Amino acid sequence: MSELTVVKCGGNPAVDAGAVCAGLARLHRAGHRVILAHGGSAEIERLAGRLGVPSRRLVGPDGVSARYTDEAMLEVVTLALAGSVQGRLTTALAAHGVPAVGLTGLDGGLLRARRRTAQRAVLDGRRVLVRDNHSGRLAGVDAGMLHALLAPRAEGGAGVLPVVSPPALAEDGRPVNVDADRVGAAIAAATGADRLVLLTGAPGVLADPADETSLLPRLALDPAGPPPYVGGGMGIKLVAAREALAAGVPVVVVADGRGPDPVGAALAGAGTRVTLRPAEVA
Fold first, then answer.
1. Of 237, 222, 224, 226, whose CA–CA distance to 272 is shortest?
2. What pLDDT, in 10s, does the model give residues 73-89?
3. Burial class, 163, CB count within 10 angstroms (exposed 0-12 / middle 13-18 / buried 19+)
4. Cα(146)–Cα(161) distance, integer angstroms
5. Which residue among 5, 124, 129, 236 sits deepest, i.e. has the most Cβ atoms within 10 Å of its Cβ?
6. Among candidates 37, 11, 40, which has minimal Cα distance to 24?
7. Residue 282 has pLDDT above 70, yes or no
8. Does the global pTM surpass 0.85?
9. How many CB atoms lie within 10 A of CB 141?
10. What is the largest CA-CA distance in the chain?
């Protein structure tokens, strides 16, 4: 069976989604199985502004930032991802001759999550509990659905390329927002992917977010605890990378999504190769 690559395309406006899709098309034509997970922070912010919905972030005790999702913002997230970003990505892939299907986690219960009843956050230097945030923690992926789409078609050639985004389906049957980087990690783990590539608007993990020459070619993460770098939105990517590695994904790379061939460059060794340190034995 051909190798399986999961690519997460970041919502940073600097990421060249067209170049990402062109790279995915080259992999697909070469017979590789590919899944594209995506967010869409720039489109979410644009649509929220048009609709007059306030956009806020929650910063956890570990320094990782996440979107605050009340009912109005959950509607914005769903409209932006399923109604705008996903269509652009599947259209771009179709232009390269790639059969792609857009799915949110709600479609067929593809992504399952546990609703957070409360979320710890730091507000004005104080730790608080936020109880009206419609977010969840991923609890399952229907890998069978994805493998069915990826299976080679009867007339020959590679199968369909799934394009997947939040939201997910909570245990109460209602949608919740989940982080797209962690969606990519969960999909890679559930499908037994050979590699996970997290594309972002930076060369990779930077020791100094303001200095692109401070790229870390390799980064070993502790199996628990706060991520070592959180600036520039990198904290949640490292959380996702750790989850994928802990679940058995062999290769995880955080790489630049801005170049002429982001996917090819990442697979050729660009960016930061993330590994997991062995747990210390007491």
1. 237
2. 999 999 999 999 999 99
3. buried
4. 9
5. 5
6. 37
7. no
8. yes
9. 22
10. 60
